[in-house]
TrEMBL record:
InterPro entries, sorted: Epimerase_deHydtase, NAD(P)-bd_dom_sf, NAD(P)_epim/dehydratase
GO molecular function: L-threonine 3-dehydrogenase activity
Pfam families for this protein: Epimerase
Family indicated by similarity: Belongs to the NAD(P)-dependent epimerase/dehydratase family.
Protein name: Nucleoside-diphosphate-sugar epimerase
Chain ranges of the NAD-dependent epimerase/dehydratase domain: 15-240
Top-rank taxon: Bacteria
Origin organism lineage: Bacteria, Pseudomonadati, Bacteroidota, Flavobacteriia, Flavobacteriales
GO biological process: L-threonine catabolic process
Organism: Kriegella aquimaris
Amino acid sequence: MKAKGFNSILMQKNILILGACGQIGTELTLALRQEYSNDQVIASDIREGGENLMDSGPFEILDATDYDALEEIVAYYEIDEVYLMAAMLSATAEKFPMRAWNLNMNSLFNVLNLAKDKKISSIFWPSSIAVFGPNTPKMNTPQHTIMEPSTVYGISKQSGERWCNYYHHKYGVDVRSIRYPGLISWKTMPGGGTTDYAVEIYHKALSDGEYTCFLKEDTNLPMMFMDDAIRATMAIMKTDITNIKERSSYNLAAMSFTPDQIARSIKQSIPDFTITYNPDFRQRIADSWPNSIDDTEAKADWGWKAEFDLEKTTNEMLRNLKH
Ligand SMILES: NC(=O)c1ccc[n+]([C@@H]2O[C@H](COP(=O)([O-])OP(=O)(O)OC[C@H]3O[C@@H](n4cnc5c(N)ncnc54)[C@H](O)[C@@H]3O)[C@@H](O)[C@H]2O)c1
């Protein structure tokens, strides 16, 4: 029998996405189904997702904190790789600290332990710029620096990073991670984060011509268009294992902007658009995060390069949401 080449082995792997119906999971599932085949990419969540996702391949109702149920699905579909997208995000986590901690940590331990026991071979787990805190250098925040997160979400992400690093060095687990900035997308609404304003604003600009922002006009945060985030996620998972030098999580950057700047970019297409400001509890969270991120390591180790700036993002968002 002819030996299988590396590419054909790569193309044969079965993938499970946990939390597939959320903002990132939906687009990631669709992109992975394009890259591999629909049947090789199993979507799962505690609720059903949009039509595109449900109609394009296998779907299972699965609670990522339930180890036995997870193990059963992994065995049934002969899963090789897991993408853990289930989590409670920053703004919601401030309201339900213990639920956030339990979901964010137990789901991670479940997939790390599956890999430790050789039931799966690789894991993608997303971290966030929320791992940084008020004492972190705000401009061009380095890969390795003071962290000290001040939110429940940030504490869970920083702990998660330490556990990923530990499982890699102690047990040889191939877990790869990115610190996503705020993500902007049009296919699915965001799920309770502090950067959600940068999606809502486009919807409101088109439906009402005005938007009341929950952050102050000069709050500068790192952001990324979803296409870039999905490309980065697939790139880090496809790169040769020897290229992955950072086993906590990689800094990743595309652009930084304020609510005032995004409003101005929308006005280029919708001149009558108006924005007002009514900051709430999320301002405190945003104030604890960096203004911009240094992603030199991601560029050097696995060739990361962003494609979308604010202008291109605004054009894509308005064009797609109009339909
Ligand atoms: N969206 C962003 O801007 C952003 C930025 C940084 C990091 N992240 C991280 O990326 C990951 C995905 O984020 P998202 O924006 O898609 O979140 P989301 O809230 O949009 O989606 C999360 C999904 O997880 C599902 N879920 C909740 N509890 C579950 C459980 N017990 N078992 C299985 N599924 C469950 C939800 O139903 C939802 O569909 C998270 O880890 C998040 O922290 C997101």
